[in-house]
From TrEMBL:
This is DUF72 domain-containing protein. It comes from Billgrantia bachuensis. InterPro entries: DUF72, UPF0759_sf. SUPFAM superfamilies: TM1631-like. Pfam families: DUF72. It comes from the Bacteria.
Length: 249
């Protein structure tokens, strides 16, 4: 492939929600007649990706990942939230231990494994050397993204660490005026709403769609997940955003 052809490559967009098994989505997103066992099938008809939260709180058994892989339609990807044992308890120390335990089961997803989100704790000041050591151990065949919850981390030294390892800075709205810095040839977006509630306005989503369309035109893959699960705003905002991005292309 020529260099000119590579430059013209259109990035791929994947939009979904953070989690999908919410009882309060029944009747709002999931039809009333569906059983809970049928929810994922309905979700996967609408979206080609989902962000899995429970891998952060407690690492499921290997057979759970195998069930997820079996349930996924062709081309579907699971984004996984890295274990809080490694990010919050160990504070990125001894990365070979926490990474090994996590990837031993996560790799069961095979081609269905998408990005891995490492969310760092709030009220923890920047330790770029520790992040550097962690990402040095993180296998490069996977896409890694880091969500920074303390503003002290939002600095050039940390961005340089992310760039050096090809990891994407997670862009999110939990921190006010979070910088839009791109540290990899792809990016990861999280929309948390107001404490996981509320619906984003059409004006906001249209503006975000314009920015995403520009990133795709540059050749960046974009992963975007809505975490405002209350009253099923997340899936409806996700569907709207995807429609608005398509309108911009």
């Amino acid at each position: 492939m020529s260099e000119a052809t590579q430059r013209k490559r259109q990035g791929r967009l994947r939009i979904g929600t953070s989690g999908y098994q919410y009882r309060h989505w029944k009747g709002r997103f999931y039809p009333d007649e569906l059983t809970q066992n049928e929810w994922f099938g309905h979700y996967a008809e609408q979206f080609d990706t989902v962000e899995i939260n429970n891998t952060f709180y407690s690492l499921p058994q290997a057979d759970t990942f195998e069930k997820w892989k079996k349930a996924a339609p062709a081309g579907f990807e699971y984004a996984l939230k890295f274990s809080r044992y490694g990010s919050h308890m160990k504070r990125l120390k001894d990365p070979e231990q926490s990474l090994g335990a996590f990837l031993e089961v996560a790799q069961r997803l095979g081609d269905c494994l998408g990005p891995i989100l490492v969310q760092l704790p709030p009220n923890w000041k920047a330790r770029p050397e520790r992040l550097d050591a962690f990402l040095a151990e993180a296998p490069k065949q996977y896409r890694w993204t880091v969500e920074l919850r303390d503003p002290d981390w939002l600095n050039d030294e940390v961005y340089d660490v992310l760039r050096r390892h090809g990891a994407a800075l997670c862009l999110h709205d939990m921190l006010e005026r979070h910088p839009r810095v791109f540290t990899a040839d792809w990016t990861y977006l999280r929309f948390h709403g107001k404490q996981y509630a509320g619906s984003y306005s059409r004006q906001y989503l249209v503006a975000e769609a314009k920015r995403i369309a520009e990133l795709l035109h540059e050749g960046r893959d974009v992963y975007a997940y809505f975490n405002n699960d209350q009253k099923a705003h997340a899936p409806h905002n996700a569907l709207d955003l995807r429609r608005f991005v398509n309108d911009k292309q």
